[in-house]
Design goal:
The protein has 116 residues and is an all-beta fold. It is 0% helix and 53% strand.
Amino acid sequence: QVDLVESGGGFVEYGGSLRLSCKASGGIGIYHMQWYRQAPGKQREFVAKISVVEVTDYSDSVKGRFTISRDNARNTADLQMDSLTPEDTAVYFCNAAHRSGGTNYWGRGTQVTVSS
């Protein structure tokens, strides 16, 4: 069992930046780390992924603006978000997916609100 706790959300103006952090209760070296988000009235959507070998992937909507990173020694996975727009307003969730598939853990989420 791995517990994930997100932090760093908040209120930011258009064009601003936020850095989200996901802290795991145990080692994350065998997990692909991902960020998802869910806006009001919408389905949860993929945002970014960093694999166990640190290959990254991003949704088209955030590519070039967001950067995902991981620190296995600190059991954290961060999401640097720049050039934020109101369309980025959502609850952001951290996910740990075992490298062999099957096991998935989710955090409770952190709210990000971007004003226009």
